[in-house]
Design brief:
The complex is a heterodimer of chains A (544) and B (461). Chain A has 544 residues and is of the alpha/beta class. Chain A is built from 21 helices and 16 strands. Helix content of chain A is 42%, strand content 13%. The radius of gyration of chain A is 23 Å and the shape is globular. In chain B, strand 7, helix 8 and strand 8 form a beta-alpha-beta unit. The chains are: A alpha/beta (544), B alpha/beta (461). The interface between A and B is large, with 80 and 72 residues.
């Protein structure tokens, strides 16, 4: 069965015409990053160029390593006190802007997320060094809160002026025994995008946090959820489902999380990975060191959520758990299907484009498909080839100079605590039965032939996409939101969710269906006439 | 008169800062020039953060390019990246102007952008190119407001007509501060009413608040025309809104030094006194009396003061924001009998305390209260100081919401940034009508709080 979508203007034509607008060298490069999807008989997809530098002067959707480390991975955790070491801007811009929610268990539980602490480096410190000021900031943080842990995040000038945040962290730990203090060398110029910051964050959390506390939560089926950041309350919805099924969610990295859960995450028996790009390193390293297996899940989209929870239940292999999971799914799907059936006829056949993240551009296609919306073009901001083509291409990925600068940790099994949760033989047996571990098949195999896959899509190309294909809906981030809506096209933010949500799990799916229905069918967007409304629209076909 | 409540920062770290970084202000000012695109010389993260932050306030597209430093650039310098960025931006957007703002990154490694630019511009193949100007804005120096003024200074130095035989005309130069789009529209109306040619710089009233597009705009329409900036050297005078400036490095000073154009610096025209002073200067520069429509607005404002005074008189406010904004607001509050129990700014300025004191004539004489004046401060410090002050409301940006939530008092939103209301960028602050708008917002917030708290549920209050 082939899945094919015929674009009104062939993707190859789009690619070539866009590339021609650049200098020859850049055009040649972009041609390797703009692909027409084609799934071969054996499931292979074309090779995409990803995780490479954005050309200077191109209005990229990407952010920096600091954003990936402080904003994405560590930002959502509430009781690690975070100090941004650098001039004021970076701290201010990351001050709760990602809208990760958190829910302290009692009003007295620490929650430092509304607190944006910066060393606010001034010219003198840039000249003479900022280590003293950083130590003073740590002193202040300890005096004010006495937190369990302090994370220090470096911004661009820090490395360049020779400040050693790790040495300061060590000195501070000696001064304050009992407080875990660690630094991140996540200067904004590291790597080519947020992705570098994810990796830096994973490494430090792995070496300095995970394994620091021997604490087991009660429950037979204990797992960690990796790469779920609780935007708009997604993690709350997933916690609800997990609990209903009888699973014990030991920790989430890092939505609605606390330090102790991170520190004891090595005691759980399974890691499920939601956002592959930002957190697969941690999953891999925890498997090597502690013997915790991992697999990829998708908890965006009701069907995908059901499938993923079934897989978790199946992993533990307990009949009661599987029965209970089925009962939860059955009960939840009643309302999901009711709303879906109501909305689907109004959205059927509409077209969408998604440019976001390292996993969301993939996951949200499922959710849109459930109400009949076809994603005709998608791409990631900061993903690598494996996120597009699947982990099977990992051995063939060339590591360039920018990626080589990001430390790759050498991990070995822990002498005492390595405990393979399932034996090699059991794992092999299950894999032979079709149960995938350490898996991610990537976005492209799930997209129809003929659709456009674009890595690091920029402002100019997004404009061209609108001009060529007149999509009914575009999903991206706030930087893209208003340029799209200016042209009368509904736009959904998939970073902040436009301050709505949750969109994960079952209730999230219902929220999303309703939101997309509102965007596609509301009155307000009809007040503006799109430039192409005067010319007959070419028809597109979608063949299953 | 005991008013010595100037407080020095007790903490080394900034805890919930009350300021943003200088490249942000520079980029925003640059977007007030017609056909201009801004380019950050540094990491792409700076452009992304500043774009996303500005967009959350203006709810409009803001395109900022960057020279995309990577690790190697940070080590070997940003010359090649800058050249490629200029080439690519020119090719993609065909801007009339490119404004370059430096960052803490490029400044720390000592990149000499002026030298790079000279080299770039001397290359013959760059012959047909946009106007390019450069503002030095390391974020470890000053705040977003300093970046804003620096960009205006850099734009004027680069783009003003420098011929010796410039003929003087009755043109007026008005340099606006970091005010709202509605404020800029109000300034246009005022200038138009004098029927003289004028240059209002910067003007992002359209670029940051345009309508829907019939056709895609590579760079949003609007902005101070390049020809308008060139013509500034022919003007009869320059009126600069704001005084928190480097006295010898600002656009008005530059033009007074080079073209002998009188420079006048006034407080932001918020409140009757400040607005009167603003019009006085305009009347002097144009040689015309204040047009009637403003006299009528002024009169309506006074009438409204009479009507609403009972709701706000004696109330206690926490006031925070940029120096010039807070100083002007304090003067306005003084007129209506509101006591600013705290007047705070994130910038480290010597003049702030003196200016706040000077703004308080009525309150000091009649109410015998004290204002806690805090410069170089942050929201955590403001919160700690506010706990005992029994404030009735706060005035300032969305960033004070945590404060008012904890204190259980209303927040009257004004200034920048406002990302938790629709139309935050369109709040009118300036002129008699802007003052009226602020006055009504304050009274209504207090009336609403009173009404909600009253058991009677009266609808006449």
């Amino acid at each position: 069965m082939t899945n094919k979508y015929e674009l009104p203007i062939a993707g190859e034509q789009f690619r070539d015409e866009v590339a021609d607008a650049y200098s020859p060298k850049l055009g040649k490069k972009r041609k390797r990053q703009i692909l027409v999807n084609q799934i071969g008989g054996d499931g292979t997809v074309p090779e995409i160029l990803a995780n490479t530098r954005t050309a200077p002067g191109i209005l990229t959707m990407r952010g920096c390593a600091y954003a990936g480390c402080k904003g994405v991975v560590l930002g959502p955790t509430r009781d690690i006190l975070q100090i941004v070491h650098g001039p004021i801007g970076c701290c201010f811009y990351a001050w709760l802007t990602r809208r990760n929610k958190t829910r302290p268990k009692t009003p007295d539980d620490p929650n430092y997320m509304p607190y944006a602490l910066s060393t606010d480096l001034q010219e003198d410190e840039v000249v003479f060094g900022g280590e003293k000021k950083l130590m003073a900031a740590i002193d202040e943080a300890v005096a004010l809160f006495h937190p369990k842990a302090i994370g220090i995040f470096s911004t661009c000038p820090v490395g360049l002026i020779g400040d050693d945040v790790h040495a300061v962290a060590r000195a501070a730990e000696e001064k304050y025994p009992g407080i875990n203090i660690f630094g991140f060398s996540c200067e904004g110029y590291k790597g080519v995008s947020q992705s570098a910051g994810h990796h830096i964050a994973n490494n430090k959390v792995f070496t300095d946090v995970v394994g620091q506390l021997e604490m087991k939560k009660e429950g037979k089926f204990r797992l960690n959820m990796l790469g779920e950041y609780n935007i708009g309350g997604d993690a709350f919805e997933l916690e609800r489902i997990a609990e209903a099924c009888g699973l014990t969610l030991h920790s989430t990295f890092s939505g609605n999380s606390v330090y102790d859960e991170f520190a004891s995450a090595h005691t759980a028996d399974l890691n499920v990975v939601m956002c592959h790009r930002s957190i697969n390193y941690l999953a891999e390293m925890m498997e090597t060191k502690y013997g915790i297996p991992w697999f990829k899940v998708n908890l965006v989209g009701a069907d995908a959520t059901a499938k993923s929870f079934r897989k978790m239940a199946k992993f533990f292999g307990d009949d009661e758990l599987m029965k209970r999971t089925e009962a939860v799914i059955e009960a939840e799907m009643v309302e999901v299907e009711k709303v879906r059936n109501e909305i689907r006829p109004r959205c059927e056949g509409k077209t969408a484009m998604i440019f976001v993240g390292g996993s969301r551009a993939h996951h949200y296609q499922d959710l849109l498909r459930e109400i009949g919306v076809v994603t005709i073009s998608a791409g990631y901001e900061f993903a690598h080839r494996d996120d597009y083509e699947g982990r099977k291409v990992l051995p063939t990925i060339t590591v360039d100079a920018d990626s080589r600068n990001i430390e790759e940790l050498t991990v070995t099994p822990d002498a005492e605590r390595y405990n393979p949760r399932i034996s090699e033989a059991e794992k092999a047996k299950r894999e032979a039965e079709g149960f995938a571990f350490n898996d991610y098949s990537g976005m492209m195999p799930d997209m129809p032939d003929g659709t456009l896959v674009i890595d690091d899509c920029n402002h100019f190309e997004l404009e061209k996409l609108i001009e060529y294909y007149h999509p009914d809906l575009i999903c991206a981030g706030i930087k893209e939101k208003y340029v799209v809506q200016k042209q009368g096209i509904p736009m959904k933010q998939l970073h902040s969710y436009d301050y709505m949500g949750p969109f994960a799990g079952f209730k999230g799916a219902i929220n999303f269906y309703r939101e997309i229905d509102r965007l596609l069918n509301c009155n307000v967007f009809k007040f503006t006439k799109a430039p192409w409304d005067d010319s007959p629209e070419l028809s597109a076909t979608y063949n299953n | 008169m005991n008013n010595e409540h100037f407080s020095e920062p007790a903490f080394v770290s900034a805890r919930n800062a009350c300021k943003l970084c200088s490249p942000l202000g520079a980029c925003f000012a640059m977007h007030g020039i017609e056909g201009c695109i801004s380019l950050i010389h540094g990491s792409q993260g700076c452009a992304t953060y500043i774009r996303r932050y500005g967009i959350s306030h203006f709810r409009e597209p803001i395109d900022i390019a960057s020279s995309n430093f990577v690790e190697a650039t940070a080590i070997f310098g940003g010359r090649n990246n800058l050249f490629r960025a200029l080439d690519n931006v020119t090719q993609q957007y065909q801007p009339q102007v490119i404004g370059i703002a430096s960052t803490c990154l490029s400044e720390t490694i000592g990149d000499d952008v002026s030298m790079y630019l000279r080299e770039y511009l001397s290359d013959a193949k760059n012959g047909c190119r946009p106007i390019i100007f450069y503002a030095s804005t390391p974020s470890y120096r000053g705040t977003h407001i300093d970046g804003f003024h620096e960009a205006i200074y850099a734009a004027v130095c680069c783009m003003v007509q420098k011929n010796n035989n410039v003929t003087k005309t009755n043109r007026i130069n008005l340099i606006s501060n970091f005010v709202s789009v509605e404020d800029i529209r109000a300034l246009h109306s005022i200038l138009q009413s004098y029927q003289v040619p004028y240059t209002l710089l910067p003007d992002y009233s359209e670029t940051f608040d345009g309508g829907t597009w019939e056709e895609y705009q590579k760079i949003p329409e609007g902005g101070t025309p390049v020809s308008g900036i060139a013509a500034m050297s022919e003007a009869a005078g320059t009126l600069y809104l704001g005084k928190a400036l480097n006295p010898e490095r600002n656009a008005a000073y530059y033009m007074s030094e080079h073209f002998h154009i009188p420079a006048e610096y006034v407080d932001l025209p918020i409140g009757i006194g400040n607005t009167d002073r603003f019009f006085d200067v305009l009347n002097g520069m144009t040689g015309s009396p204040m047009p009637d429509i403003w006299t009528k607005q002024r009169s309506r404002l006074i009438d409204a003061y009479f009507d609403g005074h009972k709701y706000c008189a004696g109330k206690r406010a926490i006031l925070y924001g940029d120096e010039d904004f807070v100083v002007a607001m304090a003067s306005f509050l003084d007129e209506i009998g509101v006591i600013p129990v705290i007047a705070a700014t994130g910038a480290a300025g010597e003049s702030f305390s003196r200016r706040i004191k000077e703004s308080q004539k009525n309150i000091q004489q009649h109410l015998h209260t004290e204002t806690k004046i805090m410069s170089d401060t942050d929201f955590a410090t403001i919160m700690e100081s506010a706990a005992e002050l029994e404030a009735d409301f706060a005035l300032g940006s969305s960033k004070g919401f945590y404060l008012t939530r904890q204190l259980g008092i209303p927040l009257v939103r004004c200034g920048f940034p406002i990302h938790d209301r629709i139309g935050g960028h369109r709040i009118l602050h300036l002129g008699y009508n802007g003052t009226l708008n602020l006055f009504e917002r304050i009274c209504n917030a207090l009336m609403e709080a009173k009404q909600n708290a009253a058991p009677s549920g009266w609808t006449y209050i």
